[in-house]
């Protein structure tokens, strides 16, 4: 088990004013490929949890 937090990439696709589809992956290249494939109305968010202090 590693002590470093792993980054998660969220690919959000806005389809309607109140709906969205979210795809998650730990691979940045895969997230970028999904965004290129989907096209318009796509946002990529990067989430890295803060390490726990002990």
Please explain how this structure is put together.
This protein has one helix spanning 28-38, and strands at residues 8-16, 19-25, 42-47. It has 54 residues and is of the alpha+beta class. The chain has one domain (8-46). Strand 1 and strand 2 (19-25) form a beta hairpin. It is elongated. It starts with 7 loop residues before the first strand and ends in a 7-residue tail after the last strand.
Mean pLDDT: 85
In total, the number of domains comes to 1
Helix residue percentage: 10-25%
Tell me the overall shape: elongated
Largest sheet: 3 strands, antiparallel
End-to-end gap: 16 Å
Radius of gyration: 14 Å
Number of strands: 3
Enumerate the spans where pLDDT stays under 50 for 5 or more consecutive residues: none
H/E topology pattern: EEHE
Features of the shown structure:
54 residues; alpha+beta; 41% strand
Q: Quick recap of the structure?
A:
The chain is an alpha+beta fold. It contains 1 helix and 3 strands, in the order ββαβ.
SSE layout and pairing:
Blueprint: E1 8-16, E2 19-25, H1 28-38, E3 42-47
Antiparallel strand pairs: 1-2, 1-3
Organism: Mesorhizobium japonicum (strain LMG 29417 / CECT 9101 / MAFF 303099)
Protein name: Msr4728 protein
